[in-house]
Amino acid sequence: MPVLVENDAAWAGALSAGLPAGTQVVTSIDQLDNWLANQDAEYAVVLGPNTDLADCTALAERVVRTYPTIGIVLLRHDLTSDVFQAAMRVGIPAVIAADDIAGMTAAVERSRQMWEAVRGPVPEGGRDGKVISVVSPKGGVGKTTIAVNLAVALSGSGAARVCVVDLDLAFGDVAITLQLIPEHTIIEAIEAEEHLDFSLLETLLTRHTNCFILAAPTHPEGKDRISPALIRRVLKILRQHFDFVVVDSSPAFDDQVFEALEETDECIIVATLDVPTVKNVKIALETLDSLNLVVGRRHLLLNRADDEVGLTAANVESLLKMPVSTALPSASAVANATNHGKPIVLSRPDHPVSKALVLLAQDLARTTMNGSATSRAATPIETDQKRRSFGRLRK
Ligand SMILES: Nc1ncnc2c1ncn2[C@@H]1O[C@H](COP(=O)(O)OP(=O)(O)O)[C@@H](O)[C@H]1O
Ligand SMILES: [Mg+2]
Fold this sequence. Notes:
By secondary structure, the protein is of the alpha/beta class. The protein has helices at residues 9-16, 29-37, 53-66, 81-90, 101-119, 143-155, 174-177, 198-203, 228-239, 255-262, 275-290, 313-320, 332-339, 344-347, 352-366, 380-394; strands spanning 2-5, 24-26, 44-47, 71-76, 94-97, 130-135, 162-167, 206-207, 212-214, 244-249, 266-271, 298-302, 324-327. Helix 11 (275-290) links the parallel strand 11 and strand 12 (298-302). Residues 368-381 and 391-395 have low confidence and may be disordered. The structure holds adenosine-5'-diphosphate and magnesium ion. Residues 139-145, 303-304, 328, 330-331, 334-335, 338, 353 line the site of adenosine-5'-diphosphate. The site of magnesium ion (MG) has 5 residues, from helix 6.
């Protein structure tokens, strides 16, 4: 995908119209450096007409050295000989008048062709993002809190594109946790199911400063109208356009959650120090095993890990036969942050809960997939039966 550097919002809007959907817009060269360090499929940098020329040429020198497959397109209000000379000196191949949108589009397209000649086809949507799901067979254990904070941490102040999908389809509260009032929800994707694409899905997203969200239906009855196939399609499309898709889920391990897990790269399983929760997490793990889902890609998160309730983290590890990869203490600051609509990683970055979640986000961002996300031993019929029997166990 191309990246546009432009600090004037009106110009950024006008230029974006001539660039492919999914183009990232940043307002400074610093943000661009940050962005490029975290991306692998950018093929063009468009330097907007209001970006300082000296900054542009310094940037071009760095890009030519560090990312030789990225094409640079320099837009200027005045095409003077000084501009052309400066561009030539640092090897900028395209210098175009700011109002020549067609010229910019053509130059960006040439950059894409050059990139593909060297590196092969640009991934559809420009990305092959990672899907991270936060699950637990219990409610109130911290799934939404963890999902939202992870999303903010993963975004790294705008260095990565992140979308949170609220799959607690009956009682989703991702939006309210971020103090957002969504105008659209996933329910509006139903009609378009067959021909759903990113241009439509994008209109259903709600923007937060650090990420996007796809909100759950506003009424619980909407849940039954959303098919597992739609969930799969939504995640498949989103991962092509975001670096991370974070899925928050319902306490029921229902078909929609199972379908999301089929598309999941890394799965955070949330437990707390109480016997019923640990018992249900154990059953959930056994079910995931029998469905061959997210095998080798599960991370046990123990929330409120310092509660003194007669059960310890060591007990949980031995009961569940897996190590606790992240332990979060109980802290009133977490609930306080939720009530103020500001995730704790933003409001209290030095808090131990924030530090642990940022570390987890860094680990997840580093982890590479160790196998196909969809390798399944069970046949679809077996899978269906196992899912249903888990549903019965849950009731
Ligand atoms: N480590 C923690 N310490 C204190 N309160 C927490 C902690 N984790 C979550 N909470 C609070 O517990 C409540 C339930 O959390 P939530 O994330 O909504 O759970 P779930 O999504 O699993 O139902 C929220 O008020 C949240 O602020
Ligand atoms: Mg929740």
